Amino acid sequence: MNDQHAAATAGPSEDERAVQDWVLERLAAHLEVPVEQLPEDAVFTEVGLSSIRAVELVTEIEEQYDLELSPVLLYDHPSVLEVARRVTEARRGVAAGADG
């Protein structure tokens, strides 16, 4: 099994899991529900996140992780897991750029 396939089939990394947990907490706050009521891989449209709240959540993610993200991030990556993966990749890219 090659490294890319192993990474694709493995669970989330520790960094990705931390981002996922943070996004879930903020999503729960926006929806005014306990975080325990949301599945770990919640799909934003299925849990009732409005477009205004989606843009607010993207802004919070940008501020929390010091990133510039697309305002349509949650539409391009429609689940908490996908957003966590994208944010983790973006953070690695920023860190790699800072090293170079």
UniProtKB/TrEMBL annotation:
Keywords: Phosphopantetheine, Phosphoprotein
InterPro entries: ACP-like_sf (IPR036736), PKS_PP-bd (IPR020806), PP-bd_ACP (IPR009081), Ppantetheine_attach_site (IPR006162)
Top-level taxonomic group: Bacteria
SUPFAM superfamilies to which the protein is assigned, alphabetical: ACP-like (SSF47336)
Phosphoprotein is among the record's keywords: yes
Pfam families: PP-binding
Transmembrane parts of this sequence: none
Domain Carrier: start-end pairs: 14-91
Keyword hit for Nucleotidyltransferase: no
UniProt name for this protein: Acyl carrier protein
Organism: Streptomyces bohaiensis
